[in-house]
Amino acid sequence: MTSTLGYAILGLLAREPMTGYELSRRLRTPIGYFWTAQHSQVYTELARLETGALVAHEVIDGPGPRDTKRYTATAAGRAELAAWVVTDPRPVPAKSDLLLRVYSIWLADPAAALDMLARTRAAHAASLERFQALLGPPELLVTDPRRADFGDIATLRAGVAYEQGIVGWLDWLCETMAAESD
Amino acid sequence: MTSTLGYAILGLLAREPMTGYELSRRLRTPIGYFWTAQHSQVYTELARLETGALVAHEVIDGPGPRDTKRYTATAAGRAELAAWVVTDPRPVPAKSDLLLRVYSIWLADPAAALDMLARTRAAHAASLERFQALLGPPELLVTDPRRADFGDIATLRAGVAYEQGIVGWLDWLCETMAAESD
DNA sequence: AAGCACATGTAAACAGTTACATGATTAA
DNA sequence: TTAATCATGTAACTGTTTACATGTGCTT
């Protein structure tokens, strides 16, 4: 019954209680955390999770015309999350805007294509560096899989591997296209 | 005006004319081609592309109660595709079912989690092998960026890099979790 | 005779994005 | 006083999936 977005929210609330606003902020940019959502989606999903008794809220002090609500994952919510975690991930319907462009790059102007690829490489190199900075030196790493920060580090490492793969591939692509356009 | 799915369809039709059914079959499983779609989406998008004169069809011999239509990309369609190819890809809203599970893996039963990770590794290792087999020996590779098969090879190489990254990361994850669960 | 591959379409439901709407507090 | 951040929600729209609908020809 619970959607994937529901498990993303539960995963954050299982670590610490948060308001819907804080959840939205965390889910707007994925830092070593491969899921995103808009605030409109978060608020409606929180209401759904609450009718299922997977989360609960208490009203806290805050500004604005409505109550400020602090949400917590219930025991039932944590149990459902723990059970979902070990189920097989459904095969992701691979979608990449960049790959779709490269698939048809033979039709494009080579110089303009190389420019686009160079800009894209720079963007991925920047997020690779950001991920590596967040990860810090290897000797400091938590490796106890029963601690919540293990999930942070493991997903960050996946982010690093992912961006390294793209940057390396883009380097090959730029070199090949530059060499053959003579 | 044209959607990303529209460019996926144009990219296939720019190579060879096809029926909607053949397009749907190609878009159901992404082989070195990072986009998927259902047949219902393909037929409606083909109709939209045709009202924009980016594709055209001729009726050919076929079974069933309706006409069988063979679609071709028009000159305008190929031009629009070529222009889109060199525009910056919008930053993909990174979504991974697997990473979301790993983020909350600290809550799960370690043995069940390791089983899930092993099954997932096997699935990715299998598609890595499939991609490598499709790529064939390196000395045979087309590297002329003005040929359509360059796009096939470039995206396949991206697929290989992607799967290698996941398999390597999953190996690290399994080892770390196995070592620390003593 | 049953089932599958070919072939095309519509309808309903769900997921996700963008825009609308309100209002307090704090910093420039 | 103007803008940003905090804070919550609804509405409209777009994209995607799943289900409904029809009918031929080939294979087992």
Secondary structure elements and their pairing?
The structure is a homodimer of 182-residue chains.
Chain A: H1 4-13, E1 18-19, H2 20-28, H3 39-51, E2 55-60, E3 68-73, H4 75-85, H5 97-103, H6 110-135, H7 148-180
Antiparallel strand pairs in A: 1-3, 2-3
Helix pairs in contact in A: 2-3, 6-7
Chain A binds a DNA duplex (28 and 28 nucleotides) through helix 2 and helix 3.
Distance between the termini of chain A: 57 Å
Report the radius of gyration of chain A as a whole number of Å.
21 Å
Structural class of chain A: mainly alpha
Amount of beta strand of chain A: 5-15%
Uncertain stretches of 5 or more adjacent residues of chain A: none
Q: What is the spatial order of strands in the main beta sheet of chain A?
A: 1-3-2
User: What's the total helix number of chain A?
Assistant: 7
What is the oligomer described by this structure? homodimer
The chain pair forming the largest interface, with residue counts per chain, is:
A-B, 75 and 75 residues
